[in-house]
Amino acid sequence: MNCAQRFNGPFPWAEARDTSDGMTATFAEQMVAKYRQLLLENAGLVTINIDGQDVSYADLETKLEHWEGKVAKQRGRAPSVSRIRLDGS
User: Fold this and answer.
1) Where are the chain's structural domains?
2) Mean pLDDT of all residues in the chain?
């Protein structure tokens, strides 16, 4: 399988993957679920050891926000930025 066949679309994290319940979830959706679970399991801790690496709770929150943004973008619901030109043009 070449890269063009593997990633349908402009975002490599938007590749659909099968899950055990028969539904398909993208990699980004899987990451959101993973970080939500880690945050729930480790509420109140300052540092968490994940796969041999110490990660701060705040870093997990930042990663969750990052992946939630990816999911929103692939669903077409990403927040937009309004630009106002102050130079009069």
Assistant:
1) 22-74
2) 75
Percent helix, strand and coil across the chain, each to the nearest 5: 45, 15, 40
Residue 20: how many other CB atoms lie within 10 Å = 5
Q: What pTM does this model have?
A: 0.60
Long-range pairs, 66-74, Cβ under 8 A, ≥24:
67/28, 67/31, 67/32, 67/35, 68/32, 70/11, 70/13, 70/28, 70/31, 71/26, 71/28, 71/29, 71/32, 73/11, 74/9, 74/11, 74/13, 74/14, 74/26, 74/28
Residues 44-82: tens digit of each pLDDT: 889 988 888 998 999 999 999 999 999 988 888 766 666
- Looking from the CA of 26 toward its CB, the CA atoms found within 13 Å total 20
